[in-house]
Amino acid sequence: MRKARWFWPLVVALLLTDCATKRVAEHHLTVGEPYPLVGQVVRFTLSYNTNAAMGIELGGDSRRIVLSLLTVAVLVVLGFLYYSTRPSERLRVIGVALVVGGAIGNLIDRLRSNAGVVDFIDVGVRNVRFWTFNVADLGITIGAVIMVLALSRWGREVRTA
């Protein structure tokens, strides 16, 4: 199947890159101590997120289980979305693959440790900082944008051009 040639390599590449960068961050960074990469704008700062995206709290004391089950449910929905996608809808396949790879990467962290998901990319200016994130989060965000484009009118126009 043509769509599998795009889907699986992207899922595996994102997953392996995410897992590898998280382990490197854990071995070379200290929690809460920033390591400047591009001045103070982009830096690596190790942290662990026990909450959902952007620190949103869900599930109280059982949040690890709740977030893990929600992730599995999202993966099932994404599986149906992938299945219903035609091979010619390459943009949609790529978007789904990136979200799936990122979701699996963060799920692995959540299941392997009570500490939470490893985050280490810290972007901002002075005291105005974005949430600390990881490669999986990048994949999820970029994949979601691509899926919106693919499912919108713009995505249909690009496919027919």
Features:
alpha+beta; 161 residues
Task: Please characterize this protein's 3D structure.
The protein is an alpha+beta fold. It has one domain (2-153). The protein has helices spanning 2-28, 63-84, 90-112, 135-151, 153-160; strands at residues 35-38, 42-49, 117-125, 128-129.
Using only CA atoms, what is the Rg?
A: 17 Å
Name the average pLDDT.
Answer: 90
**Strand-residue proportion:** 5-15%
Count the beta strands: 4
What series of H and E elements makes up the topology? Answer: HEEHHEEHH
**First-to-last CA distance:** 23 Å
Low-pLDDT regions = none
Oligomer: single chain
Structural class: alpha+beta
Spatial order of strands in the largest sheet: 1-2-3-4
Whole-number count of domains: 1
Overall body shape: globular
Give the biggest sheet: 4 strands, antiparallel
Write the layout of secondary structure elements.
Elements: H1 2-28, E1 35-38, E2 42-49, H2 63-84, H3 90-112, E3 117-125, E4 128-129, H4 135-151, H5 153-160
Antiparallel strand pairs: 1-2, 2-3, 3-4
Structure at a glance:
This protein is an alpha+beta fold and 161 residues long. The chain has 5 helices and 4 strands; from the N terminus they run αββααββαα. The chain has one domain.
